[in-house]
TrEMBL record:
InterPro entries: Ap4A_phos1/2, Ap4A_phos1/2-like, Ap4A_phos1/2_N, ATP_adenylylTrfase_C, HIT-like_sf. The gene is APA2. Coiled coil: none annotated. Residues 3-162 form the Ap4A phosphorylase 1/2 N-terminal domain. Residues 190-306 form the ATP adenylyltransferase C-terminal domain. This is Bifunctional AP-4-A phosphorylase/ADP sulfurylase. Residues 52-65 have a biased composition (Basic and acidic residues). One of its GO terms (biological process) is nucleotide metabolic process. The active site is at residue 153. GO terms for molecular function: ATP binding; ATP:ADP adenylyltransferase activity. Substrate binds at residues 53, 88-89, 140, 146-149, 155, 270-272, 277, 281. Signal peptide: none annotated. Residues 48-69 are annotated as: Disordered.
Length: 318
C-alpha cells in the first residue's frame, strides 16, 4: 500500500519544503515529566510564538486540503486515488504528515475500515524498532476535539524518543482482546478523564481491516454513550460533541471530549494531549504547570469526561 522507502520520501520532501520556505516549523522547548498522582507521563512543549499563528493557518478562508501545495505533497494517489499524504505546513515536530481525503468528507464522519487499515500500514511502514522510531496516528473529530479543519484528515507524527505513554503503560504485557459487554477496554483508574484502550496484536500479519474496525466500533460505542448520558446536565453538548482517536502499532485509544479548551488554565488539547504530549502557548500557563503539574489532569478532565474505570459499560451506557 505504501512504498517501503516512505520514510526517506517524507524526509526529503520535508527538508526541501523547509529550506524553500513552504513549511513553517515552530521550535519548542520540551521537557519530559510525570504526574506522581496519576502516574501519567508527559512531554511538555512550550511554544510562545504559536500565540501569533492564526488558528486556521495563514489563509483561514481556504480549505488547505482541497488542493494541497505540490511542495507539501508526498504521495498524490493512495488507495484507488482517494487519499493523499501531505506534510503538515505548521509542524512543531519534524516530518509531521497528514492523510487527507481527495474529495471533501466531513471531519465529523467516523473512520472507515480502509482509513483505519491505511493508518496502521503507515505506522507499520514508518516505525523502526531497531532505531527506536515510533509514530502515532491521530484523528480529531468534532468541534470539541481540538480540530481546526473540517475537511477529513488524519495526522501521523513521530513520537518523542523513548516516550512511554499512559496507553503504553496500560497495554504493557497485555494480549490483544476485543471488548464485549462482558470485557471492558483498558482504562487507568488513576487518571482523571475517561479513555478506552485496546492492545493490538503484536504481529502485523494478524491485523486487518476487520480487526481494526471491530476494535474502533467497540471503543466508539462507549465513547458516544457519554453524549447521551450527559445531555441532561449539559444540553448544548450534542452540538459540540467530539472525540479523539489515537493509534500506534501497539494500541488504539478513544477519548470522548466535552471541550476543546480548558478555561481554567487557558490551554487547548487535541489528541496529542491525551497521549501526554502537551502543547503550551501561554507563558503564564507554562509557569502554573511547572508549579503544579496536577493542573494538567484537571484540564484534561475539563476537556473530557470523568474516568469510568472499574465500571461495566452497562452501568454508564444506555
Ligand atoms: P486539526 O486537527 O484541524 O487541528 P490541530 O492539529 O489542533 O491544528 P491547529 O492548526 O489547530 O494546531 P495548533 O496551533 O494547536 O489539524 C489541522 C492540521 O492541518 C494541523 O496540523 C495544521 O498545522 C495543518 N495545516 C493547516 N493548514 C495547512 C496547509 N495549508 N497545508 C498543510 N497542512 C496544514 O498546533 C500546532 C501544530 O502542532 C499542529 O500541527 C498540531 O497538530 C501540532 N501539535 C499540537 N500539539 C502537539 C504535541 N503535543 N506534539 C506534537 N505536535 C503537536
Amino acid at each position: 500500500m505504501f512504498p517501503s522507502n516512505l520514510s526517506q520520501l517524507i524526509g526529503e520532501k520535508y527538508s526541501n519544503a523547509l529550506k524553500d520556505g513552504h513549511l513553517h516549523f515552530t521550535d519548542t522547548t520540551t521537557k519530559k515529566t510525570k504526574d506522581a498522582k496519576s502516574g501519567m507521563p508527559y512531554v511538555l512543549s512550550y511554544a510562545p510564538s504559536l500565540m501569533k499563528k492564526p488558528e486556521r493557518g495563514d489563509q483561514p478562508e481556504r480549505n488547505p486540503f482541497e488542493d494541497p501545495e505540490p511542495e507539501l505533497t508526498v504521495l498524490g494517489d493512495i488507495a484507488d486515488s482517494n487519499y493523499r499524504l501531505v506534510l503538515n505546513k505548521f509542524p512543531i515536530v519534524a516530518e509531521h504528515s497528514l492523510l487527507v481525503t481527495k474529495e471533501f468528507q466531513d471531519q465529523k464522519s467516523p473512520l472507515s475500515p480502509e482509513e483505519l487499515y491505511m493508518s496502521y500500514q503507515l505506522l507499520n511502514t514508518l516505525d523502526d524498532e531497531d532505531e527506536g522510531k515510533r509514530h502515532m496516528v491521530i484523528y480529531n473529530s468534532g468541534p470539541s476535539s481540538g480540530s481546526s479543519q473540517d475537511h477529513k484528515h488524519l495526522q501521523i507524527l513521530p513520537l518523542p524518543h523513548n516516550f512511554n505513554s499512559l496507553q503504553d503503560k496500560l497495554c504493557s504485557g497485555k494480549e490483544h482482546f476485543l471488548p464485549t459487554f462482558k470485557t471492558e477496554p483498558l482504562q487507568s483508574d488513576k487518571v482523571s478523564f475517561a479513555h478506552f484502550v485496546v492492545p493490538l496484536p503484536e504481529s502485523p500479519e494478524a491485523v486487518d481491516q476487520d480487526l481494526l474496525a471491530m476494535v474502533y466500533i467497540s471503543l466508539l460505542q462507549r465513547t458516544l454513550s457519554f453524549f447521551q448520558d450527559w445531555t441532561n446536565e449539559q444540553p448544548d453538548l450534542q452540538d459540540r460533541k467530539g472525540y479523539n482517536v489515537l493509534l500506534t502499532k501497539q494500541w488504539m485509544c478513544l477519548v470522548p471530549r466535552s471541550n476543546a479548551k480548558a478555561e481554567s488554565l487557558d490551554i487547548g488539547f487535541n489528541s496529542t494531549g491525551y497521549a501526554g504530549l502537551v502543547l503550551i502557548k501561554q507563558e503564564e500557563t507554562f509557569k502554573k504547570i511547572q508549579e503544579d503539574i496536577g493542573l494538567i489532569q484537571q484540564s484534561l478532565l475539563e476537556c473530557g469526561f470523568p474516568s469510568t474505570a472499574g465500571q461495566r459499560s452497562t452501568e454508564y451506557q444506555y
